[in-house]
Write a structure and sequence with these properties.
326 residues; mainly alpha; two-stranded antiparallel ribbon; two-stranded antiparallel sheet; extended
Length: 326
Amino acid sequence: MRKICGIFICFTLWFILPPNLSICQSAENVLPTQVIFSDEQTEQLKRYDRGLEIDAQPARFEARPSTHRAKRDLSGTTNHSNTISQNLTIAQATKPNQEPSQSEDTEEDLSDPFADEDDEGEVLPLKTIADPIEPVNRAFFYFNDKLYFWLLKPIARGYRFILPQPVRIGVRNFFDNIGYPIRFVNCVLQGKFEGAGFETQRFLINSLATLGFKDLATDNLGIKEYDEDFGQTLGFYGLGPGFYINWPILGPSSLTDTVGILGDIPLDPVSYTGETFIALPVRSLDIVNRTSLTIGEYEDLKRAALDPYVAMRDAYYQFRLNKIRE
């Protein structure tokens, strides 16, 4: 009797409940959504199947609640899962590949866009002055070098030890101030009338206020100085430097600047005395005073240069070119 009741109950449950209930529930948990592609992405998938190139745009899909229930048979559930896996694999294929390396597509052009193709790799030579009498100039350079270290520098160091720097700067300002006639005349010769007016103002203000020992016009009033000489005037009108000359005692110069020195002598107030025994000590004082304010500069140039003679020659030439261009 018990067996008959048990068989009846099992038969009744089998008839009421659907078969493979646990499997169906698992399928519903696995498949809560379905993938729905847009028309554009569907077209891309078709092109992909035909082997065509796909636009490199990320695939987008949206998940919507499933509108159908899973089939109760296990085979139907497996087929549906395989279909989703295939669709997801194809969707991933529509994503762009890894971005190309910067060296391929975004390589920066390091070449000069303003460079001329014919001049590429060409190094322009530094402008220099002609030096046809270089052996003579080198001999005078050696003489001036020894004169500086053996005579001028020791005297300038003793002079610097005696007089403080403010006094020596005042002496330099005094000699600069009395050189007003040279600057004024050459400003007029070059047509720089504004500069001639500024130089006149500087001379009057500095002479009346401090006898020229302080440059009040430039330091306090901001009046610009026009440092012109006859050598610059010749260069202003297109006369070249000629060739390089290294004079004993006077130092670096050129053929044009030598002519310029001769043109400035009549305008120099020191030459007005007409007496050599007065002019020579005054000029010597000016040289020693200026040297005391620049001790170390010549030494630095010699230490930094492979050839001090060439370095001095080129530095002088570039300095004079800049003065003419001003």
